[in-house]
Design goal:
CATH superfamily of the largest domain: RNA polymerase sigma factor, region 2, helix turn helix motif
Distance between the termini: 16 Å
Oligomer: single chain
CATH topology of the largest domain: Rna Polymerase Sigma Factor, Chain: A
Number of strands: 0
Number of helices: 8
Strand content: under 5%
Order of helices and strands: HHHHHHHH
Shape: globular
Largest sheet: none
Number of domains: 2
Length: 195
Amino acid sequence: MSHGSPTEPTNEELACRAQRGCATSFERLLRRFQTPVLHFLQRRGHAAEAEDLTQDTFLRAYENLRRYDPRWRFSTWLFTIARRTSLNARRRKRPVADPAAIASAVSSNRPPLDVLTQSESRRRLWDLAARLLSEEQWTVLWLHYVEEMPLREVAKVVNRSRPAVKVSLFRARRKLAAELDSWNSPIVACEASYE
């Protein structure tokens, strides 16, 4: 999610401009990442306070913008902050899962029953993942498959080596696949996808 075209600056370019004091550049980053960070935090079990945690994430990002290193993707740096904000909130109080949270928007071109079935299957999959997986395994799975982060970027967010992230993904998928086999549902386990 680097955005960028001949007329549209990349996230990294916007971050560098924001480091130099350009408030408009930071606002553009906020608009680009507000929804992905909100969804990430909602699915981590913080549905009731996800908006506040999203705001905290962006506040911390703004306050620490001088620490951003443009050698890394901005999304990696931002999701690292979001994860740490989430972990701090979890330490302060036990999270309550919100089973009604919508996993993501789906195309309206499909029949409503298909949309509902896929949405329900996705919600059940992420609810199952939250129950079965460790925090790190869940984070690795979400960042790689939902946020489509490359493994090296995921490794940076969770502060692990790339091989450790591969192992974590493998173990997470294996745990989920074993449980999904016992379900009578159309959910299919994620395929391995390594860069």
